[in-house]
Write a structure and sequence with these properties.
Elements (H helix, E strand, L loop, with lengths): L1 H36 L14 E7 L9 E4 L5 E6 L1 H4 L4 E6 L5 E7 L3 H5 L3 E8 L5 E9 L11 E4 L13 E6 L4 E6 L4 E6 L10 E6 L5 H14 L7
Antiparallel strand pairs: 1-2, 1-12, 2-3, 3-4, 4-5, 5-6, 6-7, 7-8, 8-9, 9-10, 10-11, 11-12
Length: 238
Amino acid sequence: MGHAASSSSSGSGGGSTTKAGKSSAAGGTISMNMMMMMMPIISKIYCSAREAVLVVRRRPAMVGGGGFVVMNSRQEVVFKVEGCGILGKKGELILRDAIHGDPLILIRQKGGIVQALSLNKKWNGYVQDYEGTEELVFCIKQEAKACLAGNNAIKISIDPSRGCGRDNWEFQIRGHFPHKNCTIVDSHGKILAQIGMKEDMEKVMDVYYVVVQPGIDQAFVSGVIAVLDYIHGESTRC
């Protein structure tokens, strides 16, 4: 009987080990799924496994082009966007990390004679390495009809090597940004981020929210919002 009890105890321990192994495997699967969901464009540290609700607040309008800040659900400032009122240059924006003040994205409106004559406007987003070398990571194209319709006319490419032409895009803006009623969607219509305004926010026009889906780069989304803000003559524009 002692041997049987010992066997039973050993069997129970083996079962426990098996369950732990299954639990560990399940945890590994979840972690792997989360990794597969992540879509870092600026950095994976700005991708969350959960839906994120950000709040955008304009800086005090002491000067035009002061930009805005982006806060998380704990009302902590996570990003700062500087416009021409701070930078002293039109057509340029900087998105900074709020903690250290490091520039995360440098955004420039594409210039030149061709662009000056074109009805379509383009913006390029760059990241910098430690040596200050710039790398193009996305481009945004504002088609002429965007000024009239505000619908499906702003396209975003995260593969600049293919150019930022009519058919080379991964995301687009749907809806109307000035009314804070629009979304960033992919080429299949899947929502990456939604921009809106709650009833209590309507009394404070300088504040609105952004819901970012799990795995989506929040710094990238904030950079896109910076360009939309400038295009529509809001806080980043002088």
